[in-house]
Amino acid sequence: MQIDKETLKKDFKRKLTALYAENISSASAFHKYYAISSLVKDYSSEKWMNSNDNYSNKEKKQVYYFSMEFLIGRLLGSNLLNLGIKDMCKEALAELGIDLDELLEVEHDAGLGNGGLGRLAACFLDSMASVGIPGHGCGIRYDYGLFEQKIVNGYQVEIPDNWLKNGNVWEVRREDKAVVVKFGGEVTPVLENDRLSFKHENFEAVLAVPYDTPIIGYKNNTVNTLRLWSAETIDKDFDFDSFSKGEYTKAVEHKYSVQSISQVLYPDDTRVEGKILRLKQQYFFVSAGLQSIIRTYKKMHKPINKLDEYIQIQINDTHPAVAIAELMRILVDEEMLEWDEAFKITTSVMSYTNHTILAEALEKWPINIFKKLLPRIFMIINEINERFCKEVYAKYDDLNIVHDMAIICDGYVKMAYLAIVGSHSVNGVAKLHTEILKERELSKFYNFFPQKFNNKTNGITHRRWLLQSNPKLADLITKNIGQNWIKEPIKLINLLSYSKDKNFQDKIYEVKQANKAQFSDYFKSKHGVTIDPNSIFDVQVKRLHAYKRQLLNVFNILDLYYRLKDNPSLDIVPRTFFFGAKAAPGYYLAKQTIKLINTVADLIDNDQAVNGKIKVIFLENYSVSLAEKIIPAADVSEQISTTTKEASGTGNMKLMMNGAITIATLDGANVEIRDQVGDDNIVIFGMKKDEVMEYEKNKSYNSTEYYNKDPRLKRILDSLVNGSLGVPTSEFSDIHKYLLANNDEFFVLKDFASYIDAQNKIDELYKNQGKWREMSIINIAHSGAFSSDNTIKKYARDIWRIVK
What we know:
Blueprint: H1 5-20, H2 29-57, E1 62-66, H3 76-83, H4 86-95, H5 100-106, H6 116-130, E2 135-140, E3 148-152, E4 155-159, E5 172-173, E6 179-183, E7 186-192, E8 195-201, E9 204-216, E10 223-232, H7 240-244, H8 248-259, H9 272-298, E11 311-316, H10 323-334, H11 339-349, E12 350-353, E13 364-366, H12 367-373, H13 375-396, H14 399-405, E14 408-409, E15 412-414, H15 415-421, E16 425-428, H16 431-441, H17 443-448, E17 453-455, H18 462-468, H19 471-481, H20 484-487, H21 502-527, E18 536-541, H22 550-566, E19 575-580, H23 588-605, E20 614-618, H24 624-630, E21 636-639, H25 651-657, E22 661-664, H26 670-677, E23 683-684, H27 689-698, H28 703-709, H29 711-719, H30 733-739, H31 748-767, H32 769-782, H33 788-798
Parallel strand pairs: 1-2, 1-11, 2-10, 11-12, 12-16, 16-17, 18-19, 18-21, 19-20, 21-22, 22-23
Antiparallel strand pairs: 3-4, 5-9, 6-9, 7-8, 9-10, 13-15, 14-15
């Protein structure tokens, strides 16, 4: 479909009238946003239909990405960009007296994720569509996102994120494609025609209704699908008999019970009810997704035993691992395949991405909960486990090894183990992460299945994180190396020839300063707080967790504050420290860390002695759209997790791509960033992998030793409990206890001195602007290696067996 400016203006006015019976002068900003978004969806619909028809008619192998999270953010800007009409749309609307940028701000972020996991899934969907791979997302249409974060008196307060309050213009409800998902009940083996079948009775039936969102490829004809499932009642939402008797709550309790399945991302699972709901969520979208996939596949009239030749399913972390047992249920119980053939097909279809090294994040479910909620699925997993344990025993003749590798053991169903046994591929998400999985966390499985393990370092879509988020930088790049980098991001490497070019360095600086000034203006208009755009913008934006060590960052700020108090003439470049993070509602230490950050911010703001030299900003309700504003403005990228704990990271790639200099431990993908840019263009500190593993193995770390021997640390930790921060002495006593009495699990105190040295190096480097700008250009040039387009091509070639 060819769209010109005049056509777009006419179509927009027609859409506004059709939707709201309004003209431009009387329409609200939201109505204008909804009208233009609806029009953009219309423009993509034919490509969407043709893509689906093409996949079906040409019998193309299709990939389904199963994930609990899809942190897609706002879609209007990226959809306009990918359709290739963003500039024209901006001009057309301007001629109608409408500012497109204002409409972009109206859209509510679809907060269907918590951080890197969900944002990675969104990047992968974008890349699959943009490189022309038939790949779709499958997840849950949560009524409420993670939560909206408010900061009240320095504390995080969670309020519901009602992102669907005004509807979602991008989705299409497909009620005709709804399926039934079954929970609970009893399963009885029945022998029929010399074959054992399984009768499922007295179950709770839930209707899964799909809502489809188009995923538009960049300037091509590919539009893939993100299918999110919503839980609804099958028969009646409303019990009229109960209502007539005055039992008003009972009249709707069944409806609300069912709807709770798709109501909120990550319900609190500290209680049994929360655990049951989480497991329900996981099986709900997995079962619905697989039923839908099988139904679509059968329309091709291909035999079920050829399923793996046409379908590939990527399990994003352990949340969807129950898909392995559900596919086995469908193949054995419904398609009547023999076990061995069904399992061969299942493992060939399934592949698993591991995202963590932390033991607590490797999901496991109590048998009593799992068996009651998913009786047939438990039977299947038990059978998989028994057969696998026999194989392990046959190889090792050692019951201890069998115990260590069993999927069902010690009262739990271990989902990571199920994912490994039931898949043909197990990949880590950074070279270091994959090495640790092989050597330590999953070493027994690696020794048993060496052919399954591989690495696929994470990536980010450069279209959103550079082309869309940082148009000034993107334009500068295109003017100097041409526009081929947009389709082939690896060609950003051509910027290396400009790294020492004084004129280009100056332009890079001008772009960064313009972005900093723009963010400062935005922040002042929204919060009334003034930020100095000439200060260093030092940015740590990521999920708040102890291993990501926001505490280490705060301790550096306190150390710098005390140095300035002791020596007001200390020669430093003014610096603004930005934090953006949400803490899980039940994660007390993380929430106290947020309070500490805000307490330090207040302390500095109210001290004239350091005013103008350092400032701390906590970015309330951090989101994709807020990331798109702060990342282009960042000078320093804080990637300071404890070595061996961060699987990969993707914020490190986004900040690097926008010219920030990374201060980092050699953890996750930081190692590969260092390998790309060289030691002179990144600032590395802290313990190495072997040091951390040695401490953990020997349990030889003593945090009190570092507290006693470093006066700077002693001053900082004492301030947590002596009232000098202007809060009650008990306020941060738990943080103090965590670091000293509980021995500082993630080595904050051990790495403190090295981190301070690294921060001093950042200050000195920034004073030498020629060197700093050269480093920035070198980082941008090498960032193309971390485009998710490259990552997805490797998945397609090595795991999904799609040549691209």
